[in-house]
């Protein structure tokens, strides 16, 4: 189907001033890259992360060490708080003690399939945690509240390009439902208290320090080591894989523009089939994948592709890194750290073979 041309309009306050940004989930994959970008341009950063064991917490400790090294020569300060976004007394203290001006809320229980196995954990972290942060953000009158949503809210949409004005009231996993609920709560806080909120629907993010439970890093790891991979479905399913620096660029642009209440897709804007994806990993690892083909999994969506028109028009966002180049860089990083220990990275061991898609 042809992409429709639309005009976008929104009420926005540009905000280029120095910031003290609370980055929840700042020890994680996207959070640590975002904190790095904010520190490098002179903002102060407060990381709130509970270093949970969804995947090996030593990876998150390593991410924080990198941030601490960076902060040594930086203009802004870095504070690391080890605690949960569901602990309202702690969250209140963090806002109070650090004079937070902006929230970049990336902490979550991520992953589609584990949310089907443990829905209460997802509701508590993603919905209760987000409500506590919104509540503190309005009490402390922050200038902007930016938070991670997900492409998974589009569920089984049949559109060629998912666009933000599509009906997303049919989530097909508890994870997707929790992310849609965050968008609804953000709307409520914007409506009741004029808290500026921006939700970002990320499309399958990959890159250096990526999540070991997600297909890109998992496949690079297993194919490099000659270990078998499990391919769910016939390989024609396609994802909009987005390189992490592009996502971070979109997050930072959102922090610099306080919209009343908006939601944006952040993706590359084109899909890659699973077959091509595996082929690209084979090309850069120089190894042939040893595949076992299994049926599609519940909760998975066959196709994701972002319409990035709105993010282009309003945020000036545009994904710069091609899929092939992103995989090349990720494999180079992987080789530099001489591989990852497979099998122990994700709680539950066997979960390692999940082809995670968000
Ligand atoms: P990640 O798991 O690497 O990062 C999430 C971080 O949040 C982790 O460091 C974790 O320890 C922390 N966290 C979890 N529960 C917490 C709690 N109760 N209190 C404090 N910290 C807590 O995942 P990521 O890929 O960097 O994802 C960041 C955000 O982007 C998440 O909200 C995720 O749902 C969303 N997202 C990611 C993708 C993707 O492809 N990676 C796609 C769509 C949406």
Automatic annotation (TrEMBL):
<dbReference type="InterPro" id="IPR001763">
    <property type="entry name" value="Rhodanese-like_dom"/>
</dbReference>
<comment type="similarity">
    <text>Belongs to the NAD(P)-dependent epimerase/dehydratase family.</text>
</comment>
<dbReference type="InterPro" id="IPR036291">
    <property type="entry name" value="NAD(P)-bd_dom_sf"/>
</dbReference>
<feature type="domain" description="Rhodanese">
    <location>
        <begin position="1"/>
        <end position="60"/>
    </location>
</feature>
<keyword id="KW-0520">NAD</keyword>
<dbReference type="InterPro" id="IPR016040">
    <property type="entry name" value="NAD(P)-bd_dom"/>
</dbReference>
<dbReference type="Pfam" id="PF16363">
    <property type="entry name" value="GDP_Man_Dehyd"/>
</dbReference>
<protein>
    <recommendedName>
        <fullName>Rhodanese domain-containing protein</fullName>
    </recommendedName>
</protein>
